[in-house]
Amino acid sequence: MKFRLKATCCMIILMALFFGAGGSALISTTFYTSLQQEKKTAHESYRMILNTLQIVNHMDEWTDEKDITKILEQLSAQDAFGAALQLHSESGILYSKGAVAAHFKDLSGQIDTSHLACTIFSAPDTCYYLQLSGSFFVGKEVYYLEAAYNISSVYESRTQQQELFQQIFIILIAACACLSYILAFFLTRPLARLSKASREIACGNYDYRSRIKSNDEVGAVSRDFDLMADHLQNSIEQLQDAMERQNQFIGNFTHELKTPMTSIIGYADLLRSQTLSKEDEADAAKYIFSEGKRLERLSLKLLDIFVSEHESFTLTKACAADIITSLVAHLKPVLAKEQITLTCDCEPGFCMLDTDFFGSLLVNLIENARKALTSGGMIKVGLTMTDNGCIVTVTDNGSGIPQSALAHITEAFYRVDKSRSRAEGGAGLGLTLCSEIARMHHGSISFESTQGCGTTVTVVLKGGRA
Amino acid sequence: MIHILIAEDEKPISNLIRLSLKNAGYLCDCAFNGTEAADLIETGSYDLILLDIMLPDIDGFELLEYIRPLGIPVIFITAKDSVADKVKGLRMGAEDYIVKPFEIIELLARIDVVLRRYHKTEEIIYAAGLTIDTKSRKVTRDGCDIALTPKEYELLLLFVQNPNTALYRETIYERIWEKEFIYGSKTVDLHIQRLRRKAHLEKELLAVNKVGYRLEVSI
User: What does pTM read for this prediction?
Assistant: First the structure.
C-alpha cells in the first residue's frame, strides 16, 4: 500500500471517528433536551387536570363517577390536554377519549397519590406518545388518570437531524479523503523524486541528482543523498581513471616489450636458418644486441619504478650538495665531449633523502637535458634548502618541450618525439621514475619550458630537514 | 617480381622483414614514418603493403583510408593484440593482421596467402625441376604426375616458399600439423623421406644436421 493511500485511510478513519462521535453526541443532547421540555409541558398539563379534579372534589364531594366524567369532558372540550385521556378505577374504565387510549400501558404498580409514572410508547400510526399516569382518592376509592401527549415532533426532528448529519458526514468524509490524498501526494512527491534518483544512480546514471529544495526533513535527506552521490561519482571516476591509466600502461608496456622481442627472435631465427652475407650477419648481431640492451634498460627502469612504488625505502640524513657536486664532477668530462657545459650552484645543508633514488633522479634529469641539447649548450643544476627539505632545479637551453606535451611527460612510455627517443635508447620511463621519486620524498615535480629556448625542471623534496 | 612496401618505424624490425623478404625473393622498399609511406605509395606501384598501426606522423588506420581506393592489399603489423583493434583493422579493409612478436615464417605464409588471393603470384611454380600447380594442387616432373598426400603437398609448398632456408623440425611441425612439436617425434622426418622419394628431391631436399631440412635451389 502506498504511503499516500495509508495517510488518506488514517485521515478518513480519524475524521469519521471524531466527527461521528461529536455529531451523535450533539444530536442526542438536542433530543434529550427537547424531550425534557416536552415532558415538562406534559407534566404541567397533567398536573393542571389533576389539580382541577382535586379542587372540584374538595369543593363538593362527588358521589358517583358521572360527575367526574362530566368534568373531564368539560376539560377535554377545552383541549387543554394531549392526544388521549383515560380515567379508571379498580372496577374499570370510567372515561376514555382519543384513539391512542387503547395502547396505554399499565403503570399502576409504579404509582401512588404523590408520585407520577411516566413512559413513552409508540402507537401503530408510528407516532410517539408520552404517557403520564397518576392516582387520586375520591373518598376511599382510588382513581387512576392516564394522559397521552404526542411527542412525535421530537423524534421527527431527531430523525431529520440524523439524516442531515449523514449527508454532511458523507460529504465531509469525501472532501477529507480528497484533501488528505492531495496533501499526502504533495508530501510524498519529493520521496518519489528521491526514489527515482536512487534508481537512476543504480542504473549507472551517476550525474543524476534529486535536488529537492525544501527546508524540511525530506530536503535534508535529499541534500545528504546528493552529497553521497557526488562522492560516489568522484570515487567511480577516480577508479575509472586509474583503470584507464592502467590499461594504457599495459598497452604501452606490451608494445615496448614486443617490439624488441620481435627483432631479437626474428634476427636469431634468420641467423640460425639462413646463410646470410657477412654484412647482414653483422647487422643481425648488432640488432640482437641493441634490442636486448633495450629490454634490459626497460626492465631495470620498471624495477626502479616498482621498487619506488611498493617497497619500503629509507630517508637518511644526507648532504644533497655533496651528492650533486660529485655527480657533476663525474659527468662533466663526458658531457664536455658533446660541447655541453655542466655547472652547479648548490646551497650547503643536510636534509632527509634516499641517496640512491636522489642520484637516480639527478642522472635522469641531466640525461633528459642532454637529449634536448642536440648541438651543444649548457646545463645548470641548482639546489636551495627549504624548511622541510630542498628544491633541485635542472635548467638547459635546448629545444624545449611543446606545451601540449607538458601534461603527459610523466606518464609511463610517453615520448614527445618517439623515433628520436628510441634512437637515443630511451625507454620512456625516466620522468615517470622522477615523479615517483619526488612523490616518495612527499614532494612534486614541475616543468617550465619554452620551445627553442630551453626547459627548467623543478623538483621539490619535502623529506624533512636534519 | 613482387614489390612490397614495409611501413614500419622500428628500424630493427623493418630491416628484419626486408632481409627475410629479400631471401624469399621479394623486392622491398622501407618507409619509417607515415609521410614517407604515403610518398612511396604515390610514386611506386606495390603489390602488397605491410603496415604498422603505430606509425609516426600518419598512423596506420589513416594510411589505410588512403590506400584502400588504390586496391593494394594491406597486412597490418602491430603490437596491439586487442580484439577491438583487430576488428577495426579488418573492417577497414586490411587483408590480414599479424601481431608482434611474430615469426618470419608466419609472416611469409600470410604474405603468400594474401598475394595468391589477389592473383599476384604465379599459379604455377617451377622449382627444383618440379612444376607445382597451386590451383589444382597438382605436382608434375617432366610431364609425369607425382601423387602426394595433402600433408606432403603442404610440406613441399613450405620448402618451395622458403628456399635455401633451414627449416627446423618444430617449425615445420607447427606450420603443417598446427600442433605443438613433441621433442623426439619422427613424424616430420617420415613425411620428408617419403616426399623426397616420391618427388625425386634426394639432391635438393637436404637434411641439416640436428636441425631440420633445407631445400637448395639455385636462384
Answer: 0.56
